[in-house]
From TrEMBL:
Protein name in the entry: Lon protease homolog, mitochondrial
Organism of this sequence: Tuber melanosporum (strain Mel28) (Perigord black truffle)
HAMAP family: lonm_euk (MF_03120)
The Lon proteolytic domain, residue ranges: 857-1043
Annotated Lon N-terminal domain residues: 196-411
Compositionally biased region (Gly residues): 152-173
UniProt entry tagged with the keyword Phosphoprotein: no
Region Disordered, annotated ranges: 92-187, 784-819
The reaction(s) this protein catalyses: Hydrolysis of proteins in presence of ATP
Keyword Transport among UniProt keywords: no
Length: 1073
């Protein structure tokens, strides 16, 4: 926003005085400058400003108060300008005191000053004054800066100026007076200065008598300051930004700054980066002599070319006050007392107060309350708003009170800092003293032989552990080397902890420690039967393992893998095996594992390294022959950057290699040949082939209905009754209810869902009992045990009377007790709950499966097949229909749906091709496939299906549709079909047989190569099923189409295809989508 020359702007400033030192790289250009301003107390000055340019660029500011003020008294009041260009030096003096003000207007006064300066430079060249880095030095003993009175600071710049400005340091202030007794004095400040440049400041206001550093980044302002110094007019008006976060070098609006500011004199200016060839000007302070200048609107007209703001100055007089006023004297005394307290807490304040006291002309700060108020606000780190209010207040009494408030806050801050510092120091000293005493006590104990070093005890502990272990020679050698290394390490060294942790792990591995195994076969059978029903293959394999160990006298480790659907007891059987063999049990899952370090550990070079899970298992079990169950081995991940965990298991599960298993952390061979590894998996397709070859596979098929019934009756129901709090309650779950649960709610291969449903039945029963009886019939306080009474502090029954005090104490303890242990609620004996088939849905809801099979009566084209899934076996129906009616002009096609994968799609094409071939051979007059557009579907469509075992089922479905013959709904079949009609072997016959029986099938057709699998099935699975094998599809045809009317089948579809020459149909294109 630009302002015109005639736009008025009124602001008030305090008069201040400064010593000026300008250091610049050029005469007129100062692109970056840091300006120090100082102000002296005096009359307040009101500034009326008129903008003489369209823009104003000013710099960011930061303030700090001055702590030293030096008044140089000379015999003559003069102004000394020293301009140094590179290595040249010239000194000239301009005397202003005593010269009458010029009467003419214009720039006559400025021109006379410049001419006097030039003459003085020529006159004083013989003084041979040198300037080095801004510090003026004289070749003789003549004083250059004037003599400093005793007791005052030698530095003339004060703390507010940093104490390091060129030409104003302590060395400059302490120069001795020369023989010529010439003194240079600073220029006088006029009472009415016509115009000055306006400069905004930020963060803190400037107070009279203090310094403030301002960084100017605008080249125009820097050049204006340089020319002001050259002309002997180093005066500016300093205004404070209202917004503390302003970071601009321009004033966009008069509302951005406060109305009251300070009339300040520039004491020094120099570039931020000290370039060679600088301009230096030093103004020396003494008692300011006001000089009246005639108002001349053109005295500062030279600033117009610099695009800066110009302000007109008027005097602003403080309100009169009485120094002897009780209020003023009381507030002044309080400020002095607060200063004393702050000085005791903060040494910096002590120096500032001392400097301020010496700078007062009266010698007593109480006699100058106005200056004291300004000083109190200047040295306090108060809020900007409060400090600005002190500056704007003209009444001395009110200003003193506001300064006292700011100073009180500073005292509170100093007291808090002192308290925090003392507390921290006390804690540190206490810890240091405790540490010193502990170390001294340790030294005394060692000298007396009472106690040895902690490291020695640690080494002895490791040696004692090693003596109880049967370490191999290679391991013992490593142990001794690490122990020797530990003995020579300092306890504070990082390597000490690494070595100690390694020795700790090395001595916690159970070298040579084994558990006594139980080779009693009867005991093993009892344990296995107690925990699991069925699973004869698993039990037989464990008994074989025990028998071999009993004959050999020792048992070697084995790797067994249980494969089966979820919920059949793969994980739980591992615990039973460990209990039967009297071995320790450890389980960890590798499902989703992608980091090989979980198995083989991290190397010791890593921070926080640990051994793998196998070494951790040995440590936890404390024997070298535990049973380690590796769960979900078929779901192990494949790491990209952390190695391949499946490959790491190869060494672990190889009987030829695991006798010297090498963990990355231990880095010594560990014998795992005595460990019995048991793995579990749902399927073998995702297990890597090399890993699969190292394991002995035992398949766990799903349970049939009879097995589920026995498991629910013997294991699941009693366990659910106890967990539901109905152990002593007459709640009966009848067998017909369990049968209904198995048939209509839980058809999966395992019993996990069956367990959930039984638990739900008993929970509903518990809720029904509580609701029917009501909570009033089962009071909780009557069911409290003796332990509960002891916790509550209930007094024992005594024959005498119990005092009221004891009763009150017991009541208080009872109220304060939050958790009261309670005994099970006593349910009356007359409560009886029975769950049967009729009321089962009240507990578990409506049935999930309505019927045993999808079709009770199958139409032509629908056949029941069998499939294997991860959950066990399932019935897979194949449906075929004729999409459009047969006509002489129709074209053949085959549409397939049902979420079929690649292998199963190929099976449909094979079955379609074989069906057409068989139809042409057995029924040449039946031209169904020559004209039929067939749609083949396998429900359910949301379930992905793949595999070749549905080949004979699809062929039978197509043949049933072509021959218009219904297939018996109690016949289920499975088998892979080739284009020549050969029936190939399939897998999962046990699961498929279970599914067939669950679906109500009575006959199952399977490949002849699976006859041995059929014979190995338990009788409870085969019960009610007739197993028929087939080598060729002709065998299947004879079974399912045994009552087919062949004459009718051969003459089918002739009515629909009448008038069409069958010999021309062979050339039709087939659309086999």
């Amino acid at each position: 926003m630009a302002y015109g020359r005639n736009l008025p702007w009124k602001t008030a400033l305090r008069i201040s005085e400064r010593r000026v030192q300008v250091r610049t790289s050029g005469l007129l250009q100062l692109p970056r400058a840091r300006c120090h301003f100082s102000s002296s107390p005096g009359n307040l000055t009101r500034i009326r400003t008129g903008w003489s340019s369209t823009s104003l660029a000013l710099g960011r500011t930061s303030s700090f108060p001055s702590t030293t003020t030096t008044t140089v008294t000379t015999t003559d009041t003069a102004q000394a300008l020293r301009f140094g260009y590179h290595r040249r030096l010239s000194v000239s003096a301009l005397r202003l005191k005593g010269k009458p003000p010029p009467k003419n207007n214009g720039n006559t006064e400025i021109e006379e000053v410049e001419e006097g300066t030039k003459r003085k430079e020529k006159k004083d060249e013989h003084n041979n004054v040198k300037v080095d880095n801004g510090n003026a030095r004289s070749g003789d003993s003549a004083p250059l800066l004037g003599e400093i009175p005793k007791g005052e600071s030698g530095g003339t710049s004060g703390r507010g100026n940093g104490g390091n400005d060129s030409g104003s340091s302590g060395s400059g202030g302490g120069r001795r007076r020369g023989a010529s007794d010439r003194a240079l004095s600073k220029p006088t400040v006029p009472d009415i200065y016509p115009q000055v440049m306006a400069l905004p400041i930020a963060k803190r206001p400037l107070f009279p008598g203090f310094y403030k550093a301002v960084t100017i980044r605008d080249p125009a302002v820097a050049a204006a300051i340089q020319e002001m110094m050259k002309r002997g007019q180093p005066y500016i008006g300093a205004f404070l930004f209202k917004d503390e976060n302003v970071d601009r070098d321009t004033i966009q609006s008069t509302d951005e700054v406060h109305e009251v500011g300070v009339f300040a004199q520039i004491t020094s200016a120099f570039p931020i980066h000290g370039e060679d060839g600088s301009l230096t000007a030093v103004f020396f302070e003494e008692e300011v002599e006001k000089k009246q200048l005639a108002p001349n609107p053109y005295a500062t007209s030279f600033l117009k070319k610099h695009n800066v703001s110009i302000v007109d100055v008027e005097n602003l007089v403080e309100e009169s006050y009485d120094k002897k006023s009780p209020v003023i004297r009381a507030v002044t005394s309080e400020i002095v007392n607060v200063f004393k307290e702050v000085a005791n807490l903060n040494p910096l304040f002590r120096d500032q107060i001392s400097t301020f006291s010496m700078s007062q002309s009266s010698g007593n700060v109480i006699d100058e309350p106005a200056k004291l108020a300004d000083f109190a606000a200047a040295v306090s780190a108060g809020e900007v708003k409060e400090l600005q209010e002190v500056l704007e207040t003209l009444g001395v009494e009110e200003r003193l009170q506001k300064s006292l408030v700011v100073l009180k806050k500073e005292l509170m801050n100093a007291q808090l800092q002192s308290k925090i510092s003392k507390d921290v120091e006390a804690k540190i000293q206490k810890r240091q003293r405790e540490y010193w005493l502990v170390e001294q006590m340790k030294g005394i104990r060692r000298e007396l032989g009472i106690e040895s070093d902690g490291k020695d005890r640690l080494i002895e502990k490791f040696k004692e552990k090693a003596e109880m272990l049967a370490m191999p020679e290679a391991v013992k050698k490593v142990f001794e080397e690490e122990l020797n290394k530990l003995a020579h390490l300092e306890t504070a060294a990082s390597e000490f902890n690494v070595t100690r942790n390694y020795l700790d792990w090395l001595t916690q591995i159970p070298w040579g420690q084994r558990s006594n195994e139980n080779y009693n076969i009867k005991h093993a059978m009892t344990v296995l039967d107690e925990d699991h029903y069925g699973l004869e293959d698993v039990k037989d394999r464990i008994l074989e393992f025990i028998a071999v160990g009993k004959l050999r006298g020792s048992v070697e480790g084995k790797i067994i893998c249980f494969v089966g659907p979820p919920g059949v007891g793969k994980t739980s059987i591992g615990k039973s095996i460990a209990r039967a063999l009297n071995r320790q049990f450890y389980r960890f899952s590798v499902g989703g594992l992608t980091d090989v370090a979980e198995i083989k550990g991290h190397r010791r070079t890593y921070i926080g390294a640990l051994p793998g899970r196998i070494i951790q298992a040995l440590k936890k079990c404390e024997t070298e022959n535990p049973l380690i169950l590796i769960d979900e081995v078929d779901k192990i991940g494949h790491g990209h950057h952390q190695g391949d965990p499946a490959s790491a298991l190869l060494e672990l599960l190889d009987p030829e290699q695991n006798s010297s298993f090498l963990d990355h952390y231990m880095d010594v061979p560990v014998d795992l040949s005595k460990v019995l590894f048991v793995c579990t998996a749902n399927m073998t397709d995702t297990i890597p082939r090399p890993l699969l070859d190292r394991m002995e596979m035992i398949e766990l098929s799903g349970y049939v209905a009879d097995e589920k019934m026995a498991i629910a009756d013997k294991y699941l129901a009693p366990q659910a009754r106890e967990t539901s709090g109905l152990k002593n309650v007459d709640v009966v779950l009848q067998k017909d209810a369990i049968e209904e649960l198995i048939k209509s709610y839980c058809r999966e291969s395992g019993v996990r869902n069956l367990k959930k449903q039984i638990e739900k039945v008993f929970r509903k029963s518990a809720l029904k009992i509580v609701r029917d009886l009501g909570e009033a019939a089962l009071p909780e306080e009557k069911a409290m045990t003796q332990e509960s009474k002891a916790v509550l502090g209930e007094p024992e029954k005594r024959t005498g009377q119990v005092s009221k005090e004891e009763e009150g104490k017991a009541a208080d303890v009872e109220k304060e007790t939050c958790e009261q242990p309670q005994a099970p609620l006593a349910v009356p004996e007359w409560v009886h709950v029975t769950i049967d088939r009729n009321n089962l849905k009240d507990y578990v809801g409506p049935p999930v499966f309505i019927s045993d099979r999808l079709y009770d009566i199958t139409p032509p084209g629908v056949v029941m097949g069998l499939a294997w899934t991860q959950m066990g076996g399932a019935a897979l129906y194949v449906e075929s229909i004729l999409e459009t009616a047969l006509t002489p002009s129709s074209r053949p096609a085959l549409e397939r749906t049902g979420n079929l994968k690649d292998v199963m799609k190929e099976s449909t094409l094979v079955a379609y091709a074989f069906a057409k071939s068989m139809m042409s051979q057995k029924f040449p007059q039946n031209h169904f496939f020559d004209k039929a557009r067939v749609h083949l579907h396998c429900p359910e469509g949301a379930v992905p299906k793949d595999g070749p075992s549905a080949g004979i089922t699809m062929a039978t479905s197509l043949m049933s549709l072509a021959l218009d013959h219904k297939i018996d709904p109690t016949i289920a079949m499975t088998g892979e079909l080739t284009v020549t009609g050969k029936v190939l072997r399939i897998g999962g016959l046990r699961e498929k047989a279970v599914a067939a029986r669950r679906s109500g099938a009575k006959t199952i057709i399977f490949p002849v190569d699976n006859t041995s699998d059929w014979l190995e099935l338990p009788e409870n699975i085969k019960e009610g099923l007739e197993g028929l094998s087939a080598s060729w599809y002709g065998d299947v045809f004879d079974i399912v189409f045994k009552d087919l009317d062949k004459e009718r089948a051969g003459n089918l579809w002739q009515e629909q295809l009448k008038g069409e020459n069958p010999d021309t149909e062979a050339s039709d294109e087939h659309d086999n989508d």
